[in-house]
Amino acid sequence: ARALDKVQYQNVSIVLADMKPNVVHILEQHGIQPSAQRVAVAEYVLHTTEHPSADRVWAGVQQTFPIISRATVYNTLNLFVEKGLLRQLHLAPDSVLFDPNIDRHHHFIDEDTGKIYDVPWNQIEMSNAKPLPGFEIHGYQVVMRGRRRKSRR
Amino acid sequence: ARALDKVQYQNVSIVLADMKPNVVHILEQHGIQPSAQRVAVAEYVLHTTEHPSADRVWAGVQQTFPIISRATVYNTLNLFVEKGLLRQLHLAPDSVLFDPNIDRHHHFIDEDTGKIYDVPWNQIEMSNAKPLPGFEIHGYQVVMRGRRRKSRR
DNA sequence: CAGTAGATTAGACAACGTCTAATCTTGACA
DNA sequence: TGTCAAGATTAGACGTTGTCTAATCTACTG
């Protein structure tokens, strides 16, 4: 695997000091060419416990990697989803969210803030989650909605 | 309750022949002023088993009620949701969908066509669907994804 | 050191949903 | 019935999200 400790674009070169080689390996294991931009996006999106939107990722990555375009972030995130590195969530009306947790789990949505929380898979017992007749099921999850309880005593 | 058998706008009057008075009562029961446009939207959206988007509703209503603007359809659908007549679904990346079925139920998404099917509430047995600590839960549902099975023999 | 495949880019573009100011209709009241 | 205020509707502008395209750049090959 290559070092990938710097990248240059348009005569400007950028040193990627803190890039853990770990991320490069993850990309390669998923059959993704580890360009510097992709490493930067992976570095951000795989190390968050939130569920950021594409533009949120763009803003976050730009802080450590200023030279990256919006199109690349969108391309990269879609590539990661295609390669099984991320999952897309369609839970909010505003935008698609990306979930770095690819293990089975459920979601809880705070209706006030829009924040999304992971719920462990085995916290909910479920049975008879069968597909419709004539269909095959690819996956399922429980989506819960609620809001923070008023503190009382 | 008023008759509401016609409406006029900009010197053009439209007769609402087939409007079931039933729909007018439903609107009034939910505290909604039954204008002609609202009745037309309700007539369409409450009598479908699909899960149309707002623009889909607009197109559908226009076939029987040509004089209605896009803004009114959006306003009306949002009003219906606010008054508990419809529910919003955030299942697809493209647009918000509206569900005339306000009873508890689950959903199955055909990943090929994007079509959404209702799944009866009691078909799935679930337990321990508790809120996160410090939260109160407002509702929950199971979202399943899959595709039509290839026919074989 | 060229040549080529793949990655990146800026900006145009399309779709969805909201907003605003103006206009219209309705219902109340005289 | 005529007037008026409150509410409903409208066209179009606008903002955001996401995709697309053609051009440019980088990295790999020999």
Summarize the structure in words.
Two copies of one chain form a homodimer. By secondary structure, chain A is of the alpha+beta class. The first copy, chain A, is built from four helices and eight strands. In chain A, the strands form three sheets. Chain A has a three-stranded mixed β-sheet with strand order 6-5-8, with no helix packed on it. Chain A is globular and about 60 Å long. In chain A, 24% of the residues are buried. Chains A and B meet through strand 7 and strand 8 of A and strand 7 and strand 8 of B. Strand 7 of chain A pairs antiparallel with strand 7 (125-127) of chain B. Chain A binds a DNA duplex (30 and 30 nucleotides) through residues 7-10, 33, 35, 37-38, 53-55, 68-72, 74-75, 93-96.
Jot down its keywords.
homodimer; 153 residues; alpha+beta; two-stranded antiparallel sheet; 4 helices; DNA-binding
